[in-house]
Structures
1.
Amino acid sequence: MNTATSNKGDNATSVSLALAGSGGAGVMTAGNMLLEAAALAGYFGLMTRTSGPQIRGGEAAAMLRIATYAVDGPDDRFDALIAVDWLNITRFSAEIPLDADSLLIGDPAQGAAPEALLESGAQSVSVEFKTLAKSIKSGWPNMVALGLLAGFAGLPQDAVEAAIAKSMKKGGDALAASIAAMHLGLSAAQKLPRRMPLAPPQGACSGRWLVTGNQAAGYGAIRGGVRFVAAYPITPATELLEWMAPALTRVGGTLVQAEDELASINMILGASYGGVPSLTATSGPGLSLMIEALGLGVTAEIPLVVVDVMRTGPSTGIATKTEQGDVNIALYGLHGDAPHIVVAPNSIGDCVRATQWAVTLAESLQTPAIVLSDQSFGQARAVIDQPADLAFTSRRKLAEPNAKDYKRYLLTDSGVSPMAVPGMAGIAYTADGLEHNERGTPSSQASDHLAQLDKRRRKLASIDYGDYWADVEGEGELAVITFGSCTGPVREAFARAKDDGLHARLISLRLLSPVQPERLASALAGVRRALIVEQNHSAQFLRYLRAEYDIAAQMTSFHRPGPLPFRPDEIHRRLIDWSRS
Amino acid sequence: MSYQPVKFYQTGTFTVGNRLLPPDVRTVQSTQRRTNSLNSGHRACQGCGEALGARFAMDAAMEASERKLIAANATGCLEVFSTPYPETSWQIPWIHSVFGNTAAVATGIAAALKVKGRTDVRVVAQGGDGGTTDIGFGCLSGMFERNDDVLFICYDNEAYMNTGVQRSSATPAAARTATTMAVGSEPGNVFGQGKNVPAIAMAHEIPYVATATVADLHDLEAKVKTAMGMRGARYIHILVPCPLGWGHASHDTIRIARLAKETGLFPVFEAAHGELTSVSRIRHQHAVEDYLRPQKRFAHLFGDPPRRDVIDHLQALADRNIRRYGLLDAKESV
């Protein structure tokens, strides 16, 4: 992997570009086209977006990183920021770091660049997008900006044209005008004081995907066998439900938009009780509402999958931005002793596998599973290599019709007991939130309570979770333990730290619950010190590790809240300081 | 200053301006006393019906309560566009109650005021159609049933606009949203019964239920004033067109709201203790097509060939409303 230090000159390996403008300026459209063009040209890429609340009329920015290698997170800084207008752009200055090597491209007709941006030392460049766009009938400034950025990064013209054509399926004059406007941007780019043409793409680009984390999770769910989804709109999980609605129809499934989160979680509870693998997607406030039903799923042993696309909390928080603050509620939010599964994908591609895995675990272990995704996966689009199909194949263990002396909650060695689906002859049972005996009959006997508690805990320990419980990489006496969207930036920081002679292990935990003490102990064998990296204010992940694991290594926390993403340099510097301390 | 009453033939029509009216019937909004409870500079879209409705409703409520008013607000467009720093537009004590519980939070505020003996301070709860008809419905029904001293205002833009136009139980039949796409043999939202919350509120026999649109702001203010003159649970349901979600021109918000009423699709009425007490009759009846055509969310009905069957079905719903509420009695129809 090449790093930013080798990133100067004509053969850039990673270029970061931002496009900002007021609502309706079309910066997201242009950003998506740029990413598509990069994909068509054979590059990898990642686009995140920032905006006010999801409503027209606010300012927005598309932030792209285009690289010759796969990228799982943002770079440290931006090489160029194009502002179609300056409206409220200083709100993004923390999210779009610039420096003396950056270009700040604006339209003089929109006035001078704000002081707050110029303070970064970025070189200010004037390009008259509006005038250029107006020189073409129905030309738009955002297409000029698209051409400028494509020219800056040296993307081939035919890929950009193809990306525009792909987006504007109706074609005709509008398409021709957009392409013409883009060409004006391309030629204007030749006059920029600096350009960063990307090195030629490496390897074959066939079989790559351009997806968001929400789409990836939805696809994983379908691959895992989910055929019913009930959900309620909530930023940043809504796209999952929008993507799932037509996708489910194609595989013979169905989606219901519920009237609230209580309804959506209980609908999937009903559907799963009825025998269909089911899922819902939400974010923190919705998960809070769903907790009671998850407890019912644990007790009545009904498989459920909830994808929690974490956002900045608590309460409404910052609905459009990311944070890893739901560790506590996902692990410990349920009342009583309620063992369940918590899985955290650690890249956009991993959203496919982790969700598929969560579905098969929930189904085979007959218990709820929570997938901890977050906004920086869910609403980001990335060009990724097609994720390998790990072929998670375990399914729900069903009872035989007319089974003799059927006991739904039979105390088996594994703790998993065959489940009857309503309609199977001769084996009707009562599924109950009340504590029950083996037959499902409510019971307040201490012995039944203990036996069922043991059974529900035992079944989670009954299977081998395999190598997929975590990503473990590297060697040495130092380790970084992290999870979810911190993993990409940590991995990139590791690559840079290698140049400083720092060798350490990376452990990105995917299976947060049930805990895997032996596996973690073996992954940490010989490790003296561990740095715990997470994005929340109270080091929830560190507290979880302390509470659940007996870790001999000395643990140091590196945590801070969202919504700003971790950048590789921030982690790299911390790694060096920590390793030398 | 003495006032010479002027009798213009337009008085009482849609076209009359405030200056032509006697001072006591001018809108609160047109006076210098208006409180600007929701002031300018917020980030609602151009032509937002909800911003307009909320401004008129809240200023009228402030006037009626002698500026002693507390508002609880559900999650939704109104909350989102009126609060982000530095564009906070509320000039009154205001609490964001999260999504499904506005009515309950307002009930709590009213209870606290009762305990403290502050009968002078009044409480308004407000939410969009999602926060009212879907997720907030349980708490709202509880508030009605207990007859808590709260005026609940629903600004109905007929879908979840803030998260990107998903359907709600107030979304009309056949309308396209992000979750009821215009595909298949019955494109758009299903033809169900919908959820008629004004009628459900009436079934609770609360003291006052009214509907209004932003096309008749005099009427809207008068209804808020009436409601604020009473105690107990009161409910006002205001139709607020959304240019973004409905796909009409932003300068057409008022026209679309008026057509909703003039076609009979949105009946405008008042009710007390479960009985209908007044109805705003249709002045110039329009076919539903006139209402549907300017809105992109119904564009799939006007393809080639047009979906005459669906349009007729919608017309039948309008005709049913006209019959049910007596929107077009023989005397008034032209």
2.
Amino acid sequence: MKIRPIVIAVLAFIGMVDALYLSIKRNAGPIPCHVTKGCTDVLTSKYSEVVGIPLSWFGLAFYVTVFSFAIFKVFDDPLHPSGFPLKAIFYLSGAGLIISALLVGIQAFILKAFCEYCLLSAALVLSIFLLSPHPVRTHPE
Amino acid sequence: MRSMSKATKPVIVIVLAVAVAAGAAVFLSRQPDQPSETTAAPLRADIKGGGHFRGPENAQLTLVEFGDYQCPSCGAYHPFVKEILNRYPKQLRLEFHHFPLISIHPNSMAASKAAEAAGEQGHYWEMHDALFEYQTQWADKPDPKPIFFAIANRIGINGTLLLQRMEGQDIQQRIVRDVEEGNKANVQAVPTFFINGQEVHIKLSMEDFVQVIEANLHK
């Protein structure tokens, strides 16, 4: 069964929609929150971009990459399974988790405002990380 | 050939998924910004004055802004608002209403009070501009009053009197009236702009400001 890569693919797909939505909305005026408060503050703050590139674009690249690895795992040859896609997802989401934790910290302690779309992304990265097995413990399926 | 066909399926799935995700994101971004229980149409507000005006009384358009002095995006919009008033000196005027989001901006109420107190000394707009200009200097301070005092001195008003008047209940009441006005208009975020009673979404660019003003001037 390939439940794990399928679930990771679904989560990465949600992440793609989230990141694309933010990329579109970012410069389209104030972004009202529905659950948290301060979406516009977070998304227009100086921490919302790196060298002029909005963080949502980096998020999109991350989710497309994770989604691609998960889909390659889904279509993996059952007789010659490759451990590479899940390994790659593990390391990618590990790095993503560190960055997400940093960004949530910035929202909580510096901006004192939360963006629900960013929190959703952090939750997705955490879920993907937890679903991707540690490479040392990974055995061929 | 066989390995190529093996790779084709996942590639097709990935391309399709990215296309569907893009479609979904575009669809969602075009949905009205208000929570689903409120009206889908842009907000309409019958704002009965009470704000501070900048520009000619007989201007064809009134740009109403509900803003918060501590909100970084209001600070980011501020130079564009000033510039658009400069570009349309006869056709446009600004009506600013306080909408301090005190739960996330703990110094916003004090800043609004400072602006009102400066207004009593005849320098509301100077303080308004300076609060945005020096936003980063006072926004995160546990006590922003020394910065407000310094700003008062810089714009040439009595800083001691300003700090005294900031404690006035009447000043607080003026701000609360603005907030009530904003709540009535269902303002959910700052800055929220209205032109002649109709909510307008303006992007953070001069081109978009000009486009919105031009469109409304020729309505």
3.
Amino acid sequence: MDPLRTLWETFFDWDAMREALPEMLTVGLPNTLILAVSAALLGSVLGMLLAVAGISRTRWLRWPARVYTDVFRGLPAAATILLIGVGLAPLGMQVWGPNPYPLGILALSLIAAAYIGEIFRSGIQSVEAAQLEGARALGFSWGEAMRLVIVPQGVRRVLPAWVNQLIALIKDSSLVYFLGLVASERELFRIGQDYAATTGNESALLLAGLFYLVLTVPLTHAVNWIDRRLRQGRTVALPDPDLDLDLAPAGPAALPGKDAR
Amino acid sequence: MSTVTATSVSLAVRDVHLAFGAHQVLRGADLDVARGATACVIGPSGSGKSTLLRTINRLIEPDRGDVLLDGRSVLGDDPDALRQRIGMVFQQFNLFPHMTVLRNITLALRKLKKLGEDEAAQVAREQLDLVGLAGKADARPAHLSGGQQQRVAIARALALRPQVMLFDEATSALDPELVKGVLGVMADLSAAGMTMVVVTHEMGFAREVADTVAFMDAGVVLESGEPAAVFEAPEHPRLRRFLSQVL
């Protein structure tokens, strides 16, 4: 048989794809989204705690954050998912029964938190010390100044890196198949793999791959868009040409502006 | 700006010492500012002027010495509450770049003074009006000139109705043509009876606006007095040398 034709049929068997499509849409896609979105939320919250602990002046917060980050960034994601999913299974059994799904989300969150924590920390630390001093001088406590002034600026600066991490998370969510999910819990990759295993044709797996691209490619472009917008600001407003050579006679009459409306 | 006069207090710094590690920055600095008076602190770079200013609102805690408002030591007070009573303006403005001009001013009003959104906005607009920037409420700081940003920073500090204002080289980062506008706002504030400590290199401002000029060198106030005395009849050789270099 023509090898090109074989190749084509291995990956682009439309019938095989059509067969897998309904389950991809109704089971795989929702599960991938649930895994990725909940792990993104939990991972971002944990990551923020890690970031703040990492810059704390208390070493009892700083050191555990450091160790946590080193460990969870250093381990292969697959190993962490297995360790958490299998290792904590007896504990999970008591909390929510034999379902390994929550432990999968937990493992993904813990991994994501290590990376997101480092992203947030670098952003927060890039905010000039003068900003903290300015906020403290107004009477804000350290915590209020961080929450209202420093963290919002720091996070803004690293939004592109944060979205990149979410993309990695979407892809890593496929690794929860290690935990032996039941049919209704399978995500995109697992469904593709199952079809591929039963038919010997990889087309369903390719279809799963296309689904991942549909999720991740818009996000990659969103990163670029966010990045551009953060650089330029919402509106490309030019600096005021007449600057302030005037110490203008104050009042609405002298400065017809937005206040006059 | 007449509203500021009623609440001004007198300020005294007594024998303040401060070291960063082995580096002794303040070695017994003293400063007296009467209620409603303006003191200008002059002196060479590294003499401890900015550090002295920061010990007054306790952004830096002194190792030794005392800071008194209306004769009462504030070193035992809650530092956050103290800083609401003492406004500070920085060389680099330190406006919050991710907020509009209006929100820069209303943030502390809403979160610390617990004013409602509308009330805080009204106070902010009044303050902006006083510094001649009523039309810039919705602009981002980055879209303003340095002089305008510094006037916003002054409005932000004044909105909290402070009893003392500290200025840390407020015009040093500005292009020369923008300095005048900011100094004008500061002079108005001084005339309105605000108690002010102004660290500055603007000798003209010190001469015309200050009630007291204090010359700092190597962490102490070497000489202080009325502007005429300090500028026309300086006693200390180091002050004479400094003045010969800057005037």
4.
Amino acid sequence: MEDSLFTFNFSAMSKKGIFTVVVFLIALILCDYIFGGFSKMLFYSQKTGKFARLSYIVKSDTSDIIVLGSSHAMRHFIPEIIQDSLHESAFNYGTMGQKLLFNRAVYEIRKRRSKPKMIILDVDADWFFDRHNQQDRMADLFPYYERVGDIIFRDFSRKDRFFGRLKCLSKTVQFNSTIVHVIEYKLKPQDDFRGYGPLFGVVDSLQLQAKLDAETATNNMKLVQPVYDSSLINLFAQFLDDIKDNDIKLFVVFSPDLIKPDYAEKCFDEKVKEICRNKTVPVIDFSNSYNFNNNRLLFNDFGHLNDSGARVFTKILCTVLR
Amino acid sequence: MLFNSFNFLFFFLAVTTLYYLLPFRFRWIMLLAASCFFYMSFIPIYILILIVTIVIDYLAGIYIEKAQNPLHKKALLTVSILSTCLVLCIFKYYNFIVINYNEIAKVFHWNYSIKILKIILPIGLSFHTFQSLSYVIEVYRGHQKAEKHFGIYSLYVMYYPQLVAGPIERPQNLLHQFKTKVNFDLNVLTEGLKSMCMGFFMKLVVADRCSLYVNAVYNNVHAHAGITFIVATFFFAFQIYCDFAGYSLIAIGASKAMGIQLMTNFRTPYASHSLSEFWRRWHISLSTWFRDYLYFPLGGSHGSKINTYRNLFITFLVSGLWHGANWTFIIWGAFHGLYLIIESIVANGKKYKYPKIWIFAVVSFGWIFFRSNTVQDSFFVIKSIFTHFGTLFIPGNQDVTAPIYAVIAIAILLTLENRSKIARILLPENKPIRPYMKMSFYIFLILIIFYLGVFDGGQFIYFQF
């Protein structure tokens, strides 16, 4: 007999059991709300640091010139030099680890408030890869979900948009991994350089040599044409179109590299240049610049200029922009 | 479909609900279909490999049981083992063998090189082939009756919670459970969910948090120095433990929610006082597999000491190779084998208790080989640790938060693993742990996952094996 009946039996769940489950769920939602609320309060109390800067970009900035990009943008472009040189207010929006999707979103957020006059777009060789990873990194904008939730998930697939919104139902998730930043910047406030994040190290000569040797050894293995995500290439083209349609001056920039770009990077640069050529967007390429290649004293690490390097670079860039 | 994805959460909810809603006789069909769907969500075509293995071992089991002549039995077992291993060899070791052959050919100027195959390793291949092998061997040994029901046998190999990364089950433990009717029990479901919760904590909060630092360092070793490698290796020790133990707990929990018990795979391995104890606590389902099906058949610890050491070394060498077709894994296995031999010589039949920190350091040293992308990288790391201490790498340029979160995550993990001891200290004697305390604990755990978890759907390390 039992085989012909559905074996899920609600009576098997005791009243006490159901009551416990209900209490657990209510307590969880309440705790999430309280803990999330507390995290929000702490988050918005930040005056300096990564998130204070991002909050300013999302909520307040109205600079005429903005720099978009990843950590290269953040470490390489000095707004004060740009301001002095071009006589317009400038702010560096470059954000560590962020790629195309994030920069598009930040641009949209800014545009909703006011249009900048000029955008300097610093692009990185990994912008046309791994859409999934780029979506994950949009979590940096989760604390602003209530304000700009529609923009955050705009470029997501329908399923990912659903899951993303589901995640953000939790107040705690919205402020995921922010507490250490809060404490860090409370203990050690950071100077504000209009979004620019200076670095003061120098690349170790031994490490540079080891890296150059390793590059030479693996050079032959890198001659493989990278396979790009076509949807990201389309998004990039749309991004350029949108900026142009809004009458915003746009310059696409390839930042200086300590080691000359390898084959994969060259392929990426060519792809970006091709898109920009089609859209008549000017490209400024510093990746092969003799001022910077192998000049370890201008670099903090293999990927980023130090403050001296950034000053040299921004000054040269401004002469080109002028 | 990764365990740490929303897709899996919905899948799990749907399967578990259906499992209890369906009449018992239909459950295996639903579970088998769900397992196929689960496996096909990775690379659909590879299900054919599974089907081939299943058919071969299913038939082998039946014919081994039927065979009267021991020689026939042995021949059938050999055919079954060889064909299952052949699948493993083609997909996992073929390219490794070819690459090494080509390197040797280059050295000796042989004018013949073999092309490598452009294939992706089927997910969890080593796990389900080993599970399949254990069935055939157990039938051969007479410890298990051959399963006549093809569907149930297929489910034994394909059961979704442990399909891609174990625990590697034995037929005696799992097969009969598919035939035993389980009624819905809220307590059983809750126990399963608790286990999953702990698993998610280990994976999302500890493993994935540590991986951010570890990957930044180990994927670019030439840019770093000794102190950075020490910190990265420390984090990797926790990353791999929490990644794999976390996966196992989610698998055990997902299965338990349906009333099906899987074997325990980890028992706080870093609390071991010797390396042999470590291997009794780490990846138990694999260690016991190698013990039962390789170490013992080789002769185990019977016979001369030399033979015992030889058996131990071979077992760990093969275990290293099982983990991956790369010299780094083979060296890792050899390192453990050698250390166990030395430990055995030093102990000389007595039971030595080494400080936990020493065993942790030894195991962590082994992890350098395990995590390095190449043998050259691993020796570069070791050399740097001893000769070029350097300065500590901080990811994202001055962003100190990644390692801090990793340390916080490890601290919470150690607290949770010792929660019973802590409760004993904090609670007055004989005072029971109240239900509301347990509830608070799991609310805390979920909030920690929400607050500190890395939700980027990071791959489980052991999937590649």
